């Protein structure tokens, strides 16, 4: 019987895995027959998130030149590099374009079709446009993958879960808010992929509370303004009259930082320097384990500082009071936060040129405004300042930090579970919206359709309404009959709405304290509570403790997801080849 491989999820992660299978098969599998079953109710390539059937108003948050699905020689992997075009090369776009998601969906479909064409002749791919319900089967035997609407399971020698972002059941607080909304005829929209959310209950002219100031909020803002017929004339928003009034806040109280709007020139910081493979190996070898804040964060902080100051000293030497060689030597020798801070104070005269990660993470810490209107002016000034800095190459040390963040993420993936804070911090600094989206926020704020609530926003359900407050504006509160949780659902095993992960956990798969599926960070094999890897089950994606920044990435930045895809593809092909050989010698 021909070997059978089931991949659940045909979006960018499943497509990337398929590309790596095609690249590695000539070496590891040869011309032997193989059936690959792709299980996904959405079209292969884009999957759910990047499907072509969504609003053309929704953009990617990366320049087209910074989006690739193909490996290069910066990816640490055992498989061969198979070069391919970036999104801007494939589509013939200017590199600085922020493409819409429909176009990215077409690019991903093309990548999928190219991967199909590059598979050996004996390999056949079958797409099943259904949901996978559960996986069963013994550790040492064939697996059964049960599909919705199909009485018999797919039989699989191996199963790879490449599920992407998942729907989740409400947590305790969300459940209470939803129950209150039902009882008082209010609207509560829980965390969701915004393009899939029914926004019709959000009525024109009425206030809407929004918790979350990241990319999900940007999508919400677009769909409730331009999506309802409004338009921009330069820096002015012309309303259609169908828009609600959005009151937005979050833990930080500010939007994610703008994408950087200039190109790199000159020498790149030689990364990794203080947080690389050797440091990761030492952390993993600790018999008592490691703590992120105590053991990992100081290394991350020093690495990001090195990237920042390397760029500052080499590209803007007039703003340093010390030669780079002297600073680098003293920076490497400095032990502890106080020594580093004293060195930086002596070598970098302008505080605006110093990297303060704590201040970046808490931009409104201690800030208090006398009135709601004063805060609107203050936050508009903050956003305008962020836009100016992120588009001014005289502040290109910020781009050095961005490259440092990518390098650090590639190492942190190997550590497995580090908690959720790091991933949010990375997104806030490195994965924010295009500059034009922030300019649209400013226009909507001036038009009175977007109102800022502040940091540490809290929402209470009382007196038949939702009420929001923030310590940023003492004494201010706003009431509304609608609340939107503008963020993706938390990718936890226990609250996944899809039964697949819950059943996998019940069958012995382990989860982290944060509820992520525990996997081997090297090849994605699912681990049990004793740390044993399952020989026939793999998992890749944001619901695992080896999650990466994304299934596609910026060219020449190491691509942690590409490294994982390659390792998983080689493990899969090696297992199937050995099984086939064993079968033939019986």
Number of folding domains? 3
Let me know the average pLDDT: 94
Query: Tell me about the biggest sheet?
Result: 6 strands, mixed
Percentage of β-strand residues: 15-25%
Name of the CATH class of the largest domain: Alpha Beta
CATH architecture of the largest domain: 3-Layer(bba) Sandwich
Strand order of the largest sheet: 3-2-1-7-19-18
Low-confidence stretches: none
Q: Looking at CATH, which topology of the largest domain would you report?
A: FAD/NAD(P)-binding domain
**Quick one: CATH superfamily of the largest domain?**
FAD/NAD(P)-binding domain
Give the distance, in angstroms, between the N- and C-terminal Cα atoms. Answer: 13 Å
Give helix % range. Answer: 25-40%
Integer-rounded radius of gyration:
25 Å
- Tell me how many strands there are: 19
Protein name: FAD/NAD(P)-binding protein
Region (Disordered): 532-561
InterPro entries: FAD/NAD-bd_sf, HpyO/CreE_NAD-binding, L-asp_N-monooxygenase_NS-form
Pfam families: NAD_binding_9 (PF13454)
How would you portray this structure in words?
- By secondary structure, the chain is of the alpha/beta class.
- The chain is built from 16 helices and 19 strands.
- The model has no long low-confidence stretch (mean pLDDT 94).
- The protein is globular, with a radius of gyration of 25 Å.
């Amino acid at each position: 019987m021909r070997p059978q491989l089931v991949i659940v999820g045909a979006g960018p992660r499943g497509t990337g895995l398929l590309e790596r299978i095609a690249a590695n098969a000539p070496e590891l599998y040869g011309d032997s027959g193989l059936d690959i079953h792709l299980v996904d109710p959405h079209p292969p390539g884009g999957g759910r998130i990047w499907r072509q059937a969504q609003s053309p108003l929704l953009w990617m948050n990366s320049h087209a030149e910074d989006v690739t699905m193909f490996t290069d020689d910066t990816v640490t992997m055992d498989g061969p590099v198979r070069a391919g075009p970036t999104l801007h090369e494939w589509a013939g776009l200017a590199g600085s374009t922020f493409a819409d998601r429909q176009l990215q969906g077409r690019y991903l479909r093309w990548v999928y079709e190219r991967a199909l064409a590059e598979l050996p002749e004996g390999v056949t791919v079958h797409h099943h446009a259904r949901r996978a319900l559960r996986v069963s089967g013994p550790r040492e035997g064939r697996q059964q993958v049960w599909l919705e609407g199909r009485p018999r399971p797919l039989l699989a020698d191996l199963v790879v879960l490449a599920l992407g972002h998942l729907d989740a059941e409400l947590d305790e607080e969300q459940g209470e808010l939803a129950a209150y909304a039902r009882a008082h005829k209010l609207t509560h929209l829980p965390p969701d992929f915004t393009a899939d959310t029914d926004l019709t209950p959000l009525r024109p002219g009425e206030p809407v509370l929004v918790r979350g100031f990241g990319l999900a909020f940007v999508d919400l803002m677009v769909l409730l303004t331009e999506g309802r017929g409004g338009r921009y004339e330069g820096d002015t928003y012309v309303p259609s009259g169908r828009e609600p009034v959005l009151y937005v806040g979050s833990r930080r109280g500010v939007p994610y930082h703008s994408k950087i709007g200039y190109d790199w020139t000159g020498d790149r910081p030689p990364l990794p320097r203080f947080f690389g493979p050797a440091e990761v190996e030492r952390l993993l070898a600790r018999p008592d384990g490691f703590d992120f804040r105590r053991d990992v964060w100081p290394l991350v902080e020093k690495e990001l500082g090195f990237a920042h100051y390397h760029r500052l000293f080499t590209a803007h030497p007039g703003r340093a009071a010390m030669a780079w060689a002297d600073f680098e030597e003293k920076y490497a020798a400095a032990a502890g936060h106080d020594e580093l801070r004293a060195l930086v104070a002596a070598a970098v005269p302008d505080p605006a040129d110093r990297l303060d990660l704590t201040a970046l993470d808490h931009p409104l810490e201690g800030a208090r405004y006398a009135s709601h209107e004063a805060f609107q002016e203050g936050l508009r000034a903050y956003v305008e300042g962020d836009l100016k800095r992120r588009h001014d190459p005289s502040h290109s040390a910020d781009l050095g930090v961005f490259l440092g963040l990518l390098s650090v993420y590639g190492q942190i993936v190997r550590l497995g579970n580090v908690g959720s804070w790091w991933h949010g911090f990375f997104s806030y600094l490195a994965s924010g919206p295009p500059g034009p989206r922030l300019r649209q926020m400013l226009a909507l704020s001036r038009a009175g359709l977007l109102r800022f609530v502040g940091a540490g926003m809290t929402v209470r359900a009382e007196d038949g309404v939702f009420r929001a407050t923030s310590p940023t504006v003492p004494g201010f509160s706003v009431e509304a009959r609608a609340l939107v949780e503008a963020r993706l659902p938390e990718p936890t095993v226990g609250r996944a709405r899809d039964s697949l992960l819950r059943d996998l956990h019940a069958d012995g798969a382990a989860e982290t304290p944060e509820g992520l599926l525990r996997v081997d960070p090297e090849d994605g094999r699912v681990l049990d509570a004793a740390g044993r890897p399952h020989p026939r089950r793999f998992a890749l994606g944001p619901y695992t403790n080896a999650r990466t920044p994304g299934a596609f990435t910026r060219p020449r930045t190491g691509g942690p997801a590409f490294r994982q895809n390659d390792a998983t593809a080689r493990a899969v092909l090696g297992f199937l080849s050995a099984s086939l050989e064993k079968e033939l010698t019986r």
